[in-house]
Amino acid sequence: MTAQNSVTAGLMVGTPNVIQLVGVTKSYKTVEVLKPVDLDIRDGEFLTILGPSGSGKTTILRMIGGFTPPSSGRILLRGTDIVHVPIYKRPFNTVFQDYALFPHMTVARNVGYGLRIRKTPQAEIKRRVEAVLETVNLADKAGRYPAELSGGQRQRVALARAIVCEPQVILLDEPLAALDAELRRSMQEFLKDLQRRIRTTFVFITHDQEEAISMSDRIAVMDHGNLVQVGTPQEIYYKPKSEFVAKFFGENNILPASASGSPPLAVIESPLGKHWAPADHQGALLFAIRPESFRLHDGSDLSAGERVAKARLDSVTFLGATTQLSLSVGASDEHRVKIRIPTALSTQNLVVGSDVMLRWSETDVSFLPKG
């Protein structure tokens, strides 16, 4: 099993895993849709599984929930294999994209449905439903029907139904995809706040990078059935481990590079000049840096690890709080980079076609394997 196919996230001291996927795969006849995956999901965290359509993220969620059996591998709940445990015996609840509310039931009866199935005493159902509706700010909507609610309110009913049975894990399959942009942002804030308050593990599926960044404690990135990187939003944004992650997870400047040399440091040549990195980098590489990591060099002294390079200014685009500059770099100006700087900085004197000096820190650069 290669690092490309399997990423095992390290444990935080005092933060045990609630779920572990060990060598989990999924195939349909001769089509392998999920390569061997190892993934640890920590108790009480908000983990997002992020990837484009067809990457395997929903397949993982369905296997955890028991809706789809894995072709091989183990799914452990606090150390116990649950691969053969049926859905109704797993201490998880799932929130689907379409909410799956019963149209003929009131909000209160929708929320209490799972408790009634479990034959919970009526007084206990009433108490718990009232408490959870208070938690999701729907106490005044208990007697309404789904058709009388807004999209965001129906979403909160589905969440209330998921948490009322006090599951160990809540699985969320792109639950915000059907909402408009403004409501979606509001629900993102609500979901994260709710997860912090009830301290339950959330496993959230999305293809939206901004959504993943704003909500997650950690993100697992999927690509063509491979789990390619797991980390905090900051780790994945600023230190991608592959070209796919660098391009998929926000905008990145990607330039060709080559490394040579012997321990402890390799010399790396790129269109922005020479760099130094651990000597395990060898041969053809890719140089990646975020647009906001560049600055225009004002001639002041450089700090340790800072670099400068000449560039030609090709265009200036006003974006509101920031301004984007497009520049050509390299010996023959054959490569392009974009940088974003605060508009409050003086950009009025920039002349398209003129030379400028770029400034950046070595710590903001990622060197990626080519291909």
Identify the notable features of this structure and list them briefly:
371 residues; alpha+beta; six-stranded mixed beta sheet; five-stranded antiparallel beta sheet; 8 helices; 20 strands; disordered N terminus; transmembrane transporter activity
Structure commentary:
It is a single chain. The chain has eight helices and 20 strands. The longest helix has 18 residues, at 181-198. A six-stranded mixed sheet has the order 6-7-8-3-9-10, with helices on both faces. Strands 13-12-11-14-20 form a five-stranded antiparallel sheet. It is elongated. The chain has helices spanning 57-65, 107-117, 122-135, 151-163, 181-198, 209-215, 233-238, 243-248; strands spanning 17-28, 31-42, 46-50, 72-77, 80-81, 92-95, 169-173, 201-206, 218-223, 226-231, 253-260, 265-270, 273-278, 283-289, 295-296, 306-318, 322-329, 335-342, 355-361, 366-369. The protein has 371 residues and is α+β, with helices and mostly antiparallel strands. Mean pLDDT is 89; it is low at 1-14.
Show unreliable segments.
Answer: 1-14
How would you characterize the largest beta sheet? Answer: 6 strands, mixed
Q: Which percent band covers the strand fraction?
A: 35-45%
Count of distinct strands: 20
The side-by-side strand order for the widest beta sheet comes to 6-7-8-3-9-10
Question: What sort of overall outline do the alpha carbons produce when their principal axes are compared?
Answer: elongated
The value of Rg in angstroms is 25 Å
How many individual helices? Answer: 8
| Order of H and E elements | EEEHEEEHHHEHEHEEHHEEEEEEEEEE
Helix content: 10-25%
Mean pLDDT: 89
- Label the structural class: alpha+beta
N/C terminus separation: 18 Å
Family: Belongs to the ABC transporter superfamily.
GO molecular function: ATP binding; ATP hydrolysis activity; transmembrane transporter activity
Pfam families: ABC_tran, TOBE_2
Organism: Rhizobium ruizarguesonis
